[in-house]
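Lab notebook, bench 4. Still working through the backlog of constructs that have no structural model yet. Next entry is a single chain of 266 residues. Request: give me the C-alpha cells for it.
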Amino acid sequence: MCPFGPRGEVWFRVSVLDVHDVTVRFGGIVALDGLSFSIEEGHICGLIGPNGAGKTTMFNVVSRIYQPTGGSVMFRGHELLTVPPHAIARLGIARTFQNLALFPTMTLLENVMVGAHSQGKVGFAQAISRVGVANDNRRTRDFAGDLLEQLGLGTLAFHPAAGLPFGTLKRLEIARALAARPNFLLLDEPASGLTHGEVEELGHTIQQIRDQFELTVLLVEHHMSMVMSISDRVVAMEFGRKIAEGSPEHVQNDPLVIEAYLGTTS
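Model written out:
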C-alpha cells in the first residue's frame, strides 16, 4: 500500500524500529523485562525513566553491544539481532555515548573524520596501493568540515578537543555520529552536564539535524522539559518494563509515570 494519497498527504508512517518482548538478564538481575515499542520514520522518540530503568541497556541492545536473552528487534523490516556489531554503521545506525568517547589530543576535524571511516569508499587493495586514498580523504575532510560548520563548531575545526567546554564536546560527539551518514541516530543523554541554556539550545539542534539529515532519533534523556518539547512520542520505563507510551502530553500526565518520578500519584 502506498503511504501517500493523491495530493501527497501521508496516510501512514513506516516503522523504522520495532522492539518486541525484549528481555535482558545479567545473572539474577533483569535489566529489561519484555520491553516492546516502535518508532516511526522521521520521529524523535524519547526513552525516559528513573536511574536503573533500563534505558541505556536498551540502547546497547540496539547498537549490538548487548545480546538480549529473548525477544526481537526489527530494523526496517530486518532482524537486527543477527547483525554483528561492526556492521551496524553500514545499516545507517549511529549513536553517541553518555560518557564522552572522544580523542582529546586530536582536533575536532580529526575526531569527526574518525566517525566517517565506515563510509569510506577505498577498499583494502586500494588502501595498500594508495590508489584513490587522497581523493577519499579529501572528501571525508570536506564533509567533516561541513558538519562542524552546521553545528556551530567551524571556527574550532583545528583545535584539539582537550580543554573545550562540555557543551562544545557534546556537539562534537553528535557531529562525529553524523559523519557516519546515519538515517537512525541514538542519543544517550546528550544534555547531561549542560547548563539550562545549553540544554534548550541542544533541543533545537536535535530537531534541526533530524529535519536536515532526514533522521529518525531515539533519545535517552533525564531533562524532561527537553524530551517533552522535542519528542513526537515518548516511552516511559521503570525496572526494565514499559509503564507508558504515547504523545508527550499523554505520558507526562500518566499516573504511573508521575508515581515513578515523584513517588506519589497525588
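Notes after review: Confidence is low (pLDDT under 50) at residues 121-131. The first strand starts at residue 15 and ends at 26. Flag for follow-up if needed.
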